[in-house]
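ugh ok fine here u go
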Amino acid sequence: MLAVTALAALESLLSATVADGMSVNERHDPDRELFGQGLANLAAPVFGGIPATAAIARTAVNVRAGASSKISALTHSVVLLAIMMAASQLVSEIPLAALAGVLLATTVQMVEVGSIKAMARATRGDAAVLFLTFGVTVVFDLVAAVAVGLGLAILIALRSVAQNAKVEMVPLEAGDHTTAEQHRETSTGALAKS
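structure:
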């Protein structure tokens, strides 16, 4: 359950980030995004719905079509509902291969080759996280890929912190401690020397 929750949160934030990257001067509030998604997913089962998340492909299509407000998502939903209610028989005749082609075309438009090249060239750690996450996604699934990618990124960050950490001896000044503490330190130092 925790993995599904993390994946839903990650997909929503990635979707918002993709929308930010495709639009000009637009930035999302991650806290607000996740809070709203959490409330919606708590309320949906009460009305017989299932938990949902933002979808990167749907968001990309909206932004490419010129969407600039939250009404675009609502309009998208209403149009899909209308199509489903009025033309479900006709839509069911569309081959899955054609729908897969539409999804692939959307994916190709979303991927920025320059960004991938920049990440691959940034550091060896970034490149390792990128390619390992990609590989695990293809071989296994997205939940496993997120876990592996996060784990590797955490290990790389901890290694970087450990390499840059320094321990310095700072001499104490007369006003740093009380008289009793200074007396104890000097007597301890004298015992250590003898």
